[in-house]
């Protein structure tokens, strides 16, 4: 359930481009106009706007936006405007760079996109960076993190609903045994988490819970500060219950001393067209504050307006 | 360079189906007619024939062929008739089954198909087996073999010509160091072999040869009988010089006491539309016997005729 709202009658891409051009023209930029257009177009429409802009004005729309905008607002508009596969390729590439390295972003992309969408990210990555996604992830990670992240971004999981209950039982036992031995990066554990279909993994984890009395993520909390265990728990959450994971990322980003704008922008721009409605509901439930109010309290100006537009603030 | 020959004027799929139907009809089967049609149609044409056959007679062509044919000839016709992605999915699946397990076939598919073709195999695998290719490979392998094979079949290597010579130098050193330490399944070595683009890997191996005085596969022969080293050498050969690899598979299949028909059929059916011309040239050079004469000496009947048709016997 997306929170993106698109007007009932959408102007043509040419009209949108003309308006954007106006917003850029002269002294100062009309940020409100930019938001009123881009924050209310879906991925296909934004793609068409980019193509049309390029044809009409011989200039890349993203470059024009970069020139006109700045700071958090700029990042939110640029990330949002990119089509999903290119946005993910961009985020993943950033996450493999030294100063912006993030195992979390890589894990998120590997675990929460559909198999087909993840493949589109890998294609976009080739086109833009002349290397493969898994190549850069493998190069910029090591040890246990590499063992987990490379198969996560290389996976092409089966997506049918079929579940093998006998297998779920066997693999729940394997998981339990490895965790009891504190062999958290054991190759069997990694294999199960990184290759099984999401419904199959879910069945395995349900069986784990029923048979051994704890949810697996509770048993993976033996050492709550261990960075690898944190990532592994997050991966399991992303694979089985992504809305809950994203709710928590938002919660931590907003409650932090000094908001974590990167996380906030990332979650809002990547989920607004996917499951932001559910994330908002979960956020409200968990924090007793609606997400839009929390965002308003922590951000300001055009950046605030952009985020609120994307999460459907003011809609029925 | 393919060896497949397609007549200048190809009958319609409906006409081909009618002829095939005739070949199956009555007492006995007209094998020559089957060969004259199927062994001279490309993948797209064979696919259309399958679809047309199904529509016209409400029967699966492959099932009909299975009923009519037997033994090595049957396997050759069936494998050949399948479109490449489905054929590879079938071979890979077979290679993960207990009685037909083969790390070699899995490696071959992971290393010698283009990135896009390998992705098509993974899609075909989902459709046919309701699981993912990497899932089955991971489940049915273990230890060093799993460490090598899972990333090989999950890879989506970049295919552009760009080569980074500084990286080639650095990674040649890493490879040399790991091999000197006999750390043949070291994660850095596996990373380089399984994620780099083929041109990049080639540059690295050239540098290795120049700098350290031996081709890498020579240094990987420390223990010639070690099964993992054999597979690793073969993978490197497949990634850098697939025709040479396939020539050797054919050589060993034919020279064996009792021909290895499975290998022979696999190589001929999977390469006839790709690079069989080069494989044939290499075979002749290396064995001082043309491949068609070698095959004739080792096989007979319809099976022989089918293979010879596929490798372009009797063509200019």
From TrEMBL, chains A, B:
InterPro entries reported in the protein's UniProt record: Annexin, Annexin_repeat, Annexin_repeat_CS, Annexin_sf, AnnexinD_plant
The UniProt record lists the keyword Cell cycle: no
Residues forming coiled coils: none
UniProt-listed GO biological process terms: response to cold; response to heat; response to salt stress; response to water deprivation
Any one of the GO CC terms: plasma membrane
Keywords annotated in UniProt: Annexin, Calcium, Calcium/phospholipid-binding, Metal-binding, Repeat
Protein residues bound to Ca(2+) 3: 298
Positions of Ca(2+) 1 binding: 24, 26, 28, 68, 254, 256, 258, 299, 304
GO MF terms held by the record: calcium ion binding; calcium-dependent phospholipid binding; phosphatidylserine binding
Pfam families with a match to the protein in the record: Annexin
Family as reported in the entry's similarity comment: Belongs to the annexin family.
Notes on the domains: A pair of annexin repeats may form one binding site for calcium and phospholipid.
Record's protein name: Annexin
Source organism per UniProt: Vitis rotundifolia (Muscadine grape)
Lineage: Eukaryota, Viridiplantae, Streptophyta, Embryophyta, Tracheophyta
């Amino acid at each position: 359930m997306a929170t993106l709202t698109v007007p009932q009658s959408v102007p043509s891409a040419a009209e949108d481009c003309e308006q954007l051009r106006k917003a850029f023209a002269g002294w100062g930029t009309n940020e409100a106009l930019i938001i009123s257009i881009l924050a209310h177009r879906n991925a296909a429409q934004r793609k068409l706007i980019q193509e049309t802009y390029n044809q009409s004005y011989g200039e890349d729309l993203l470059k024009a936006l970069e020139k006109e905008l700045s700071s958090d607002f700029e990042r939110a508009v640029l990330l949002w405007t990119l089509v999903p596969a290119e946005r993910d390729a961009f985020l993943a590439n950033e996450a493999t760079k030294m100063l912006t390295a993030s195992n979390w972003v890589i894990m998120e992309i590997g675990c929460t996109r559909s198999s087909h969408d993840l493949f589109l990210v890998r294609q976009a990555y080739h086109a833009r960076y002349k290397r493969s996604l898994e190549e850069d992830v493998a190069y910029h990670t090591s040890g246990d993190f590499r063992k987990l992240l490379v198969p996560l971004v290389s996976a092409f999981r089966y997506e049918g609903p079929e579940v093998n209950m006998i297998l779920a039982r066997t693999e729940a036992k394997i998981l339990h045994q490895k965790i009891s031995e504190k062999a958290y990066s054991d190759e069997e554990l990694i294999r199960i988490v990184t290759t099984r279909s999401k419904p199959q993994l879910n069945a395995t984890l349900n069986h784990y819970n029923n048979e051994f009395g704890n949810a697996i993520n509770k048993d993976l909390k033996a050492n709550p500060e261990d960075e690898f265990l944190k990532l592994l728990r997050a991966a399991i959450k992303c694979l089985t219950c992504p809305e809950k994971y994203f709710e928590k990322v938002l919660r931590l980003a907003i409650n932090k001393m000094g908001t974590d704008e990167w996380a906030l922008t990332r979650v809002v721009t990547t989920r607004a067209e996917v499951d932001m409605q559910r994330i908002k509901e979960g956020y409200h439930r968990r924090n007793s504050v609606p997400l839009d109010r929390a965002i308003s309290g922590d951000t300001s100006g055009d950046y605030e307006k952009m985020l609120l537009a994307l999460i459907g603030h003011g809609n029925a």
